[in-house]
User: What shape does this take?
Amino acid sequence: MEKKGDIAVIGLAVMGQNLILNMNDHGYTVVAHNRTVSKVDEFLDNAAKGTKVIGAHSIEETVGLLKMPRKIMLMVKAGEAVDQGIEKLLPHLSPGDCIIDGGNSHFTDTIRRTTCLEEKGFLYIGTGVSGGEEGARRGPSMMPGGSPRAWPLVKDIFRAIAARTPDGVPCCDWVGDNGAGHYVKMAHNAIEYGDMQIICEAYHLMKQGLGLTSRRMHAVFSRWNKTELDSYLIEITADILAYRDDDGKALVEKILDKAGQKGTGKWFSVNSLDLGIPVTLIAEAVYARCLSALKDERVAAAKVLAGPHAKITGDAAAFVEDIRRALLASKIVSYAQGFMCMREAAREYHWTLDYGNIAMLWRSGCIIRSVFLERIKAAYDRNPGLSSLLLDDYFRALIDKCQKSWRRVVMTAVRMGVPLPAFSSALAFYDGYRSEKLPANLLQAQRDYFGAHTYRRLDAPADKIFHTNWTGRGGEVASGTYTV
Ligand code: NBP
Assistant: This one.
């Protein structure tokens, strides 16, 4: 009898190939297919040689080679390729079969696809897969969501191939309905933008403000990696700073300072605006990449725009510790904002998210893996209804410890003319969040003055709306109230 596969993977680029080999290592028989069919044989003759992987040269053959109910994972470019893949598969599937999209799809596409496939009697999963090539091969962090009935079909395979926390728990669990998995993956990527930006700001200040060499900064980041900041991104930053080019000079200093991006940080920032949640640090991280990309304009502006170019004097070691604390406080704000946004998304899109569990999905296998995430899990274990991580006792105490340093760093950088958009926006958010009163009373008066947008009063019931004829020339008619 012909051997049948446990799962099929369509898309034999870097992620698909490595996931297949990972599944094979864990004893699963995988059917492999790719749009450009020659890549199937190339894969079987090379990386998959000697494995149990079965090559399929058409969609029909792929489907026919699978055990029922069928599980077919698309690892193709996000967007149209996923819709095209689904269209091609549907005529060959039976009710109860499951299509899985493991790419970086936008969560709204996943919501649409889940509904569409469920209406046709099929099951659908949109799963975040994080950790790049190495993660896919050795154990990614996986964030599946979609049709809840699909989870038991893939649970064993996904949890077998996923990364594990230091305690041995797989970094893969069901996130929630329809687009929840892809939403959480988007949040992960966006938090990664924030983490990278705050590290870059620390580096910028040490280099430009203190004049530290890459060798010294390598030592600093290596030391920081033994503190609360212990994480993959701090570790690779230390490695990068130590890396020498052929001439013995630091390679990092020869790299063009123009950042690229693939869009998930922007997606999250746009979504945070849609939801009305101030995810300021991540948005600043996206804008910082945009500003860096304006290299030619910056080069021209640098010649004509004045500003300070002073160096920081005084105790350099003490200031380096100030920077570490500023980084830590900013990181706490970034995660607090990211989790606030996920909480609002859960309300908006009707998901039940387990925030402590999400933190542990990211504990290994992905780019933002860190010890810090365990503290987030502990905070949600203490209080599952926590409205902000900033209010958790551990994080509150940590911010208290870092606060003076954080303010000193931002003030010094402003004086020196070193841009710290993420550090400073995080501090502004912190001060705004802890303000009982903000100047929005004046803002509401302005809106009512020019547009009759109405306001509420502190000394009147909350549901009572007022409009003032501020100039004596306007009418008494108020504008309708609505939220954009
Ligand atoms: P790519 O994102 O580079 O996509 C290449 C694959 O998509 C190839 O197999 C290609 O087939 C297939 N494809 C395309 Br392009 N258009 C297609 C279509 N219309 N119909 C069918 N197949 C089509 O591959 P990747 O880097 O392995 O990433 C796969 C997914 O995983 C993406 O969504 C990506 O965002 C996500 N992801 C990537 C990483 C990473 O580190 N690379 C990490 C995490 C997530 P062909 O060979 O015929 O052109």
